[in-house]
Amino acid sequence: MTEIILRNVAKRFLLPDREVSALEGIELTLPTGSFTALIGPSGCGKSTLLRLVADVLRPSEGEIRIGANAPSVARRKHEIGFVFQEASLLPWRNVLGNVCLPIEVARVPATRDPKALVHMVGLAGFEEARPAQLSGGMQQRVAIARALALDPKVLLMDEPFGALDEITRQRMNLELLRIWKSTGTTAVLVTHSISEAVFMADTVLVLSANPGRIAHRIEVDMPRPRRLEMMRQLAFNALENEVRAALFDDSGAVA
Questions:
Q1: Helix-helix angle 95-106:136-147, to 10 degrees
Q2: Is 159 helix (H, G, I), strand (E, B) or coil?
């Protein structure tokens, strides 16, 4: 079981002149194999929440569990994969070399064939290409393959497609859903796109601002596999409007 559990989690940062509360009272259970999207205004703590789960940050109070383990244990067991907004590939390494990097750093036997991962993300034939020879979408494919190199149970993604054009972004959404389905990971996606959140997720969590709290939980009752034509359906538009209403008050201001 690799469900993600947060119980009364808070995170505060100490600045030179004051303490800032980024998150308060976060209560969540994300089931094994689920896909959850986090959305909310800038500065509401979405990325902070992701980094708490990844053990990049420690909570000020509360408890986090990945399966039966604390995030620190899950990280040491290589159960967490993380994809950032920027691919951050090593420019002197080729595609295959970048995918192999976590295996080399961890000094553990490969649990997945790196070449198979390159094929899985649709880059067969580009194993020897350098990052500068790849488009932004292709670089993000490499970043996803790298995050999966140690066969993690949890995949955390912080706006991985935010810098891409809309056409490429939608193609990458489809690719990510295919990869997620084939790996069975528990996925959490931070996004600023309402349509992306609805299209990708089983559940959309809307965070409020200052401090971040789970203000709304919206279940996406749409069949899988998801197809782009679903975005033209009334049910999809209704879900978008529900998320939009959760994000904005009647005046159009961020809620």
A1: 30
A2: coil
